[in-house]
């Protein structure tokens, strides 16, 4: 699969899915469904850090790009899962 960033720059259509269930079974199903990206929503979803590891493991065998929407920027201070996350999305900005 071409790099997602390159595809976006080329204005190609990319298709994705948001996951907020905290389920590795759902993650595997969505990962194998042919989406270009999957976003695991930890900010508003019911999943936890423990669920995240299982979801990322389920997605690791797919060509789907994994994106994680975190609750706070310091969430990944330990870098436990950062080697299999391609993007981290944080929309919480303190001004």
Question: If you had to describe this structure to a student in words, what would you say it looks like?
Answer:
This protein has 95 residues and is an alpha/beta fold. 26% of the residues lie in helices and 18% in strands. It has a four-stranded parallel β-sheet with strand order 1-2-3-4, covered by helices on one side. Helix 2 (24-31) runs parallel beside helix 3.
Tell me roughly what share of residues is in helical segments: 25-40%
Instruction: Please state the overall shape, judged from the principal axes of the Cα atoms.
Output: globular
Following the backbone from N to C, one meets helices and strands in this order, namely: HEHEHEE
- What class, by secondary structure content? alpha/beta
Main sheet attributes: strand count, strand direction, barrel closure: 4 strands, parallel
Number of helices: 3
Quick check: average pLDDT?
Answer: 78
Instruction: Tell me the radius of gyration.
Output: 13 Å
Strand content: 15-25%
- Strand order, largest beta sheet: 1-2-3-4
Distance between the termini: 38 Å
By DSSP, the count of extended strands is 4
Low-confidence stretches: 78-84
């Amino acid at each position: 699969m071409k790099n997602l960033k390159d595809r976006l720059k080329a204005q190609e259509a990319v298709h994705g899915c948001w996951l907020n269930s905290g389920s590795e079974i759902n993650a595997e199903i969505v990962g194998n469904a042919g989406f270009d990206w999957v976003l695991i929503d930890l900010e508003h979803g019911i999943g936890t850090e423990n669920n995240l590891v299982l979801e990322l493991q389920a997605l690791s065998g797919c060509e789907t790009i994994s994106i994680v929407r975190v609750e706070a920027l310091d969430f990944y201070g330990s870098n436990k899962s950062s080697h299999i996350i391609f993007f981290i999305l944080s929309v919480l900005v303190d001004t």
